[in-house]
Amino acid sequence: MKEDIKNLTLEEITQFLLSRGEKPYHAKQIALWIYRRNITDFAKMTDLSLKLRQALETNFSIQKLILKEEKISEIDSTRKFIFQLKDNYLIESVLIPNLNRLTACLSTQVGCKFGCIFCASGMRGFIRNLETGEIVDQLQSMMEEIKSFGQKVTNVVFMGMGEPLDNYENLIKAIKIINHPSGMNMGARKITISTSGLPEKILRLAQEKLQVELSVSLHATNDELRNALMPINKRYPLKELLSACKEYTSLTKRLITFEYLLIKEVNDRKENLRELSELLHGFKCKVNLILYNPFPGKEFKPSPIEKAILFQRGLQRKGIITTLRQSKGSDIEAACGQLRRVHAMQEDRANRDASLVGTPE
Ligand code: SF4
Fold first, then answer.
1. Atom of ligand 1 nearest to the CA of 120
2. Phi, psi (degrees; rounded to nearest 5) at 155
3. pLDDT tens string 17-70
4. Which domains does the chain have, with CATH numbers?
5. CA dist 238 to 193, 211, 245, 280, Å?
6. What are phi and psi of 8, to 5 degrees?
7. 233 lines ligand 1 (CB under 6 A)
8. Residue 113 CA: which ligand 1 atom is closest?
9. Catalytic amino acids?
10. Ligand 1 center to 120 CA (angstroms)
11. Is this prediction's pTM over 0.70?
12. Is residue 133 within 6 Å of ligand 1 at its C-beta?
């Protein structure tokens, strides 16, 4: 199969052009056709020579994700999309409205190998990394879907299925395409990478000189609790993670946001509040408290709102910038991995029924 040209950054397209004796400026023209005019046929790139169009056709394809399902929340208008990949695996992406923002939440892997116990994405294990083009195309396809409503995506967050920093090269290439003026033209500061906390990759990211935002999922205030909620903590305990975060902040001069899911009677106790204040004491950061979004098969419940407000005020009193938000799209399984999981369960059921039909008595 020919390589998807969306897997190439503009610099890589330029290298291809130079290797064929073509002018480098054609890279911008090609990108504008693909990302702004949504062209999927090289023959339609009419400002390129016939020779170049044929060379592109010989070497590359322009892939599109197949939209399998779209769900809109009746509660908060969050829109969830299920896309089918070329090898038939399903991924999900979400559009989250919030005041004057519309944030696209993108997936970076099919499944996830990190197995956080509150998350639906890891429940069926890891299948594969998404290619760069598959990451970018989630954004492009969602933008196309909402264009007719006069809506525009204002922010991008890599917080869908998978651990973005575990698919590092493809993630960074996707960010470069999304950020490039001839690509999706989204400001780097409008792009957030959300990680479960891989210290080596956090330090590598600091060297990229990208102006993107970084948020780290903390969700626990001591190693014992974090080991239980997020197995990655056994490999990278809190001390190592927070030390990498401090170094990232000092190298990039950028604030890190710590995400903290509030789960009833798991991590919302008084001692958790005290431990969290101590962990983040003197750390230039923000904390984003999120009420847990429950889903079938997990016994966790969100903290009561009164408790969440107390938690927020307690952190604010310690001088820590803290926001509190509700998970969006609770009626459409919008938390990461949930809708794909429902699909997968339906497919399992269908396969089981089919095999029962085919089983001789
Ligand atoms: S929370 Fe993120 S890292 Fe953890 S299992 Fe889910 S997708 Fe993977």
1. 6
2. -140, 155
3. 999 999 999 999 999 999 999 999 999 999 999 999 999 999 999 999 999 999
4. 3-61 (1.10.150.530), 66-347 (3.20.20.70)
5. 19, 25, 10, 11
6. -105, 135
7. no
8. 8
9. 92, 336
10. 8
11. yes
12. no
